[in-house]
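Following up on my earlier thread - several people asked me to post the actual chain instead of describing it. Fair enough. Here it is, all 510 residues.
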Amino acid sequence: MKSVGKKTMGLSAFLVTVVTLFVAGYLYVKKKFQYWEERGVPYVKPEFPYGNLKGIGTTKHTTDIFPKIYKQFKGKVLFGGMYYFTEPVAIAVDLELIKNIFIRDYQYFADRGLYMNEKDDPLSGHIFALTGQRWKNLRNKFSPTFSSGKIKMMQETINAVAKELQNYLEPIAQRSEVVEIKDIMSRFTIDVIGSCAFGVECNSLKNPNAEFKRIGKRVFDYSGLEFLRAYFLTMFPNLGRALRMKFNKEDVSEFFMRILRETTEYREKNNIKRNDFLSLLMQIMKTGKLEGDDTELGKLTFNELAAQTFIFFVAGYETSSSAMTFALYELAQHQDIQDRARTEVQKILEKYNGEFTYDACMEMNYIDQVINESMRKHPIGDNLIRICIKDYNVPGTKHVIEKGTTVMVPVYGIHHDPQIYPDPEKFDPDRFTEENIKNRHPCAWLPFGEGPRNCIGMRFGMMQTRVGLGHVLTKYRVKTSPKTQIPYVADPHINVLSSKGGMWLKLEKI
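Reply from S.P.:
Thanks for posting it. Predicted structure:
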């Protein structure tokens, strides 16, 4: 009987503990979900446990959620509130406030809020994620490697890969085949970045199963629990570091660290120099400056070099391939715009003996308008995040964005705002003439961010996109097919904007 009594008492104590923890958890969450209400800020009603992220990464893409929140707040308040799980997030919807966040009052919002754990995940210590003085120091070291002069050095490599792309498409176009164009554009940018960043021939165009392509795809494939894990690490970085959690997948990290170590050791041993990004970083790692420039930048560690090369590969490969994919998608639907873009490229190439020189590419104004309008309508990064690093009094209001608060800028919502871009679903490159750009708010177009923490690789990305598109358009016509989704559905399993089921287009030889 005593034994039964002890078991009953033990079970009772267990149940009391469970109930107590449940009640405590409920009260904690309820209190967290009162954050915006207590501060008099309009907010979107959250649901436990997702906050306002229900369905993200499984059935919904971020473009299914945040543009609706933008519309809910736009014109009524400068910013509103929502919740990432239980964490309050400020949604900036007023362009002047956004300009303050990115530019005027940048010092309050200097960090991106990306998860970083250099001890357990060295590749996470890249320039996009670094904070404070470390970010400033690295940006100063890094910026000279993206100057126009350094990009000119890599122009020949970009052109060589673009020629391979052109040749690869030749038999496809002769047969008027329907192809998944994102896959092909990804292979092109992987080969460009692999060569410019690592000095490695990735051969993705020749071999669709190349290891670089497989690993590159793994970086952005976040489905279900992986997507939620990424959000968790973004919102609870200290807990993630305490648990020694990594943002990058193990096989991705092992692959890049191995490739970089082998490549740098081989180059040092054999005194090999190339006109690529890795060579520039190796110069900084070894001497603290670039050849031909006496400016002292300070040396890099190997892990710092690895992290910067990794992010250059990841960001450059995905954003540019997506930009080209969406541009071709739109050009296939608008043959008049495609003809105009093709004519511009052909006329400029005649002037430069058929060569895609740096100067020739810089004259391709209409191609730039096509790319810019495509990135307006289909921004690869559909939201931008900043962390408030000290209390910020929102101008013209009684509200304070408190230190540690995540601030999100809904890029997709802004880019599809009919008050900024009339008939926003219409593809119209003339929105990006010099005159029209001047007449718009400077923060109405944000595919590269804005201010001191904008995309440092913007010039390079635009160049490889121009060259890739130009090589396609000069020899081939792009058309829609019965397999082309119009409109396409955003893939919820990929954490950048991408078409579910691929982007299928028809190619014909001119």
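The longest strand covers residues 79-84. That should answer part of your original question.
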